[in-house]
Amino acid sequence: MIIGRFAPSPTGPLHLGSLVAAVASWLDARAEGGRWLVRIEDVDTPRVVPGSADEILAALQTYGLEWDGEVVWQSRRTTLYERALDELRAKDLVFDCACSRADLQRAASAPLGEEPRYPGTCRHGLPPGREARSIRFRAPDGDDFIVRRADGLFAYQLAVVVDDAEQGVTRVVRGADLLTSTPRQIALQRALGYPTPEYVHVPLVLAPDGTKLGKRDGALPLPTLDDARIRETLALALRHLGLDIAPAEPRRMLEQAILFTKSRE
Known about the structure:
Blueprint: E1 3-6, H1 16-30, E2 35-40, H2 52-62, E3 72-73, H3 78-90, E4 94-97, H4 101-107, E5 134-137, E6 145-148, H5 156-167, E7 171-175, H6 181-192, E8 198-202, H7 227-240, H8 250-264
Parallel strand pairs: 1-2, 2-3, 7-8
Antiparallel strand pairs: 4-5, 5-6
């Protein structure tokens, strides 16, 4: 049985781009009679906006996206991440790193706008006189990445891998902006002996200037009070996924979407 999930960060209300990702994941699971889980990825506590998690959950219900089981909160699962990090340490697959963001920018060889590739400064030990700031995973391709940040918080890459394995997630449907995270997560899964889910990445909703539409870019929150706008917004999200369904009551639209999805398989 397929087990999918939607894992928003509570840094603000849902917008159209996040609704598209949620609908795509929900349809993928429901069309095959699978389970659909919701996880609140609030491990990055400094970015959490109070009350936004409740807004997100209420919006999902408004748009007919009911989930199975209880909602999981990353902030309550640090013991699991500690255990995974200890296992990586025991396998010599992580190392302490003294590099700051400024250090990496100075050593960067990546094209403008891309994440700089880690130059391996601390891979074989801290430079003399430097203290550890973060912990990095010793990646097979040498592009070592952070699994515990300088502020002590666990990084997204480790937390999401542990959560997907613990929840038994078998298929991850998400936006194409996370495509570059997939190889890192697969590397961690292999290092920890976890199964690797199937990954599907859906096209992003773009702003008029061609950039990603997201919370940081001022994307408007989803309408949640006006029934007509709710229906039109859900129809827009479905159309982005190639499903041309007339606006109607959300659950009815999603039922039609499931039938269309099955007919295309």
